[in-house]
Each structure stands twice: as C-alpha cells, then as structure tokens.
Amino acid sequence: MVQACREVKQRAAQTLKWATTQSWLLDIALDHLTLGRAALYAAILERSEIQSSEFEIDQAVDGLRRAGTTHHFPRGLLTRAWLRFLTGARTDSTSSPQAGPESAQSDLDEAWDIAERGPMPLFMADIHLHRARLFGLRIADRGLRIEEAAYPWESPQADLAEARRLIEKHGYLRRIPELEDAEEAILR
To answer: Which of 69, 98, 119 is where one domain is finished?
Structure first.
C-alpha cells in the first residue's frame, strides 16, 4: 500500500508540473489534493509524521477555493478535516485548547454548508461518515487505546443512520464497506 502511495505521488507530481505550466487552477488544486492524500495515507500506514501532507492539503483547499469549483471543494475540506483531527486541531469549542476556526470541526461544518446548499447528497453521506469516524471515537497513542471524544453534532449513531439512508437512497454503494466498518467500530 505504501508503494502505491509513492506511485500516486510520482504521477501527481508530474501532472502538477503540466497543469502549472498551463495555469489550470482546478487541475493544480486537484493534483495538490492527490499529493496531500497520498502523503497522509502513507504516513498513517507507516505510522510516521503526517506534517508533510499539510502543505499539499492546504494548497489544495486554497486552490479549490480560488478555482471556484463548489462541486470539488468538499473533497479538500474532508481531507483537511482528517488531517486537522489527527494533528489535534479538532473542535470549534472555545473552552478547548484544540479549538478555533482552523479545526476539523470547522472544515466539516463548511463542507456541510456547501453540500447542503448544493444539494450534494453524496458529499453529505461522506460528511456524516467523517463526523462519526473522526469524532465518534478517537484513536490515541497510534491505535493502542480508544477513547471517546466530545461529539459536536447530535450523535455518531445519528450520523451513521443518516449516512446509511443517503447511501441507500442514492445508490452510493461503494461506501457500504466503509459505513459497515464505522458502524462496527462505533456501535459495538
């Protein structure tokens, strides 16, 4: 899997060069997103520092915003929410040292606002899954201990139920394995 991440990074780096010479904002942003995701996945798989993905993911989100592509923007926000959650920037609560507008919660809330206005029900299903997976359980000490985290929305169970409803209603069946995995992890 890590080798696959390296191969993806190589291809995305090449297409980023091409897109940059043409000043294609959307392609540049999507290449940064691919580079950031590949770095994040590799770091998670190798249990190494995830900071190397931060630059690429931030570039992707900024680029998607500049490109004005609302239909792609939630992808960047979901990825950055995952990164921010893992680096400790979790909630918007002012009572927490992990609080602020640059948090996983704020990214998920912004992605929700965009998807809801869209309407983008597949992104809404993804957001419900991300909420439940990131905030329903917090994996601490690199997977050695599971702790409950404060949940900023109704409940992980409600998010999973709504994700299931949207997935089934819209035939988003490729998300079923992820949904079932999340249900097993959170509802057990």
So the answer is: 69
Put simply, whether the predicted model's pTM sits higher than 0.90 gets the answer no
What are the start-end ranges of the E strands in the chain?
138-140, 145-147
* Cβ proximity of 111 and 71 under 8 Å: no
pLDDT tens column, 8-21:
889 999 999 999 99
Token pair of 172 as six digits? 């988003």
Q: How far apart are CA 24 and CA 14, in angstroms?
A: 14
Mean per-residue pLDDT over the chain, rounded: 87
Phi, psi of 176 (to 5 degrees): -55, -45
| pLDDT tens by residue, 124-177 | 999 999 999 999 865 433 343 344 446 889 999 999 999 999 999 999 999 999
Structure tokens at 118: 């869209």
> In this structure, are 176 and 99 located in the same domain?
yes
Find how far residue 16's CA is from the centre of its chain.
21
Looking at the structure, tell me whether residues 180 and 113 fall in a common domain: yes
| Residue 81: predicted pLDDT | 95
94, 172: one domain: yes
Which tokens sit at 163? 């994700």
Instruction: Supply the Cα-derived Rg of the chain in whole angstroms.
Output: 17
**Which residue range(s) make up the domain with 10?**
1-69
Q: Say how many domains are in the chain.
A: 2
Q: 159 with 128: CB under 8 angstroms?
A: yes
